Known about the structure:
This protein is α+β, with helices and mostly antiparallel strands. Helices cover about 25% and strands about 25% of the residues. It contains 4 helices and 7 strands; from the N terminus they run βααβββαβαββ. The chain has a 7-stranded mixed sheet, sandwiched between helices. A hairpin with a 2-residue loop joins strand 2 and strand 3 (about 75-85). The protein is globular. It starts with 14 loop residues before the first strand and ends with a strand.
Amino acid sequence: MQNIPVLSKKEKVELTFRPIEKKDNPQVANIIRTVMTEFECVGEGYSINDPEIDDMYAAYNNDRSAFYVIEEGAIILGCGGIAPLEGANGQICELRKMYFFPALRGKGWGRKMVERCLVVAKKLGYDRCYLETVERMEQANFLYKKMGFEKSCEPLGNTGHSSCESYYIKEL
Length: 172
């Protein structure tokens, strides 16, 4: 497993929330792979195998997607974004690749990421937002429900994430 950064011991930590840049690709790939491994989401049917992981900047650098990072100094501690749901009608976006190192969890950054993504999704013309996760990511499931996502019985689109067992949808 990779080295997991922690927040600095400074009295007041300055975190920056910003769009992904090309230079962020290695750190973002590290977050995704590290967190997915932490939650035993490896192998076939998980997003850890998505080809976009090594170049998230290129994958989300278009007029229907957005991807963000949260950093302390030059260290990225969290990420997440939205893009069209593959295999859907173009009106549904997917909340994708929202992963945080433990240092950010439970501090409100997940809510801020979801809020930002939903605002952008609405501006991009989507009418619903979909996401997939696993039950063992308990904090994430709690957050999605708290943010108004409704649990669905079956997956939508063609994400390729057949090992996920929790699906959520939200009207925008």
